Amino acid sequence: MALDNLIFAQCILYFLAFVFGFIAVVPLSENTEDFGGKCLLFTRGMWQNENITVSKQRFVVEEWGPESSCSFITFVGIASLILSAVQAWRLLFFLCKGHDDSIFNAFLNLLISSLVVFIVFLSSTIVSVGFNMWCDSITEGGSMPSSCEDLQDTDLELGLNNSAFYDQFAIAQFGLWAAWLTWLGIAVMAFLKVYHNYRQEDLLDSLIHEKELLLGRSSRRNSDLKTGLI
Question: Which of 9, 36, 74, 206 has the largest CB neighbor count within 10 A?
Fold first, then answer.
């Protein structure tokens, strides 16, 4: 019963990881489409007057962020989504059939989940730091009267659709950090599974050893009894 509860808890966590991965991937994909493939993470720019006589300012991008940053976090979100879906389905099958992982498979799951925890944490940090750099650029470090959220309603005249960038990355950050916490829980559950299997294997070895000792003692008694009769 305890093992079934552990498998069920793992199944729930994998389902949550799938949901949070989906929450992260959708707005990231939308932002990539809105920005025409350009990555706003780590983008640098400044506000400049259009000309000397007109005081109207427009935002000028000095350097767009590396596209590899956005590609990496999108890939991590998709990978987390797919892996969690496969694992949830596998564990649900085990739960229905009453099967269980071998010690090797349980240890392999622990290694994979630990790796995913690190990668998702890395991608979450990239999103948070990179987006903060973008917001610092368009608000000039907070000196602008408008906030980063307010500026998504302003046409930055960059030749792209910037009407939802703040909402998109706020949702993506939530999805990624929530996915990281979920995968951290999955890694803890995987460790408990490995520990449980190790204890079960250790208990089985002890029982086999005790059985051999009892059989050995019984055989010695029989041989001693035969010797006494002779």
Answer: 74
| Tens digits of residue pLDDT in 3-49 | 567 788 888 999 999 999 999 999 999 988 988 888 889 988 888 77
Residue 39 structure tokens: 């990555």
Which residues are CB-contacts of 36 (< 8 A; sequence separation ≥ 6)? Answer: 159, 160
Reported as a pLDDT band with limits 50, 70 and 90, residue 127 is very high
Note whether 126 and 203 are within 8 A (CB). Answer: no
Would you say 111 and 52 are in contact if contact means Cβ atoms under 8 Å apart?
A: no
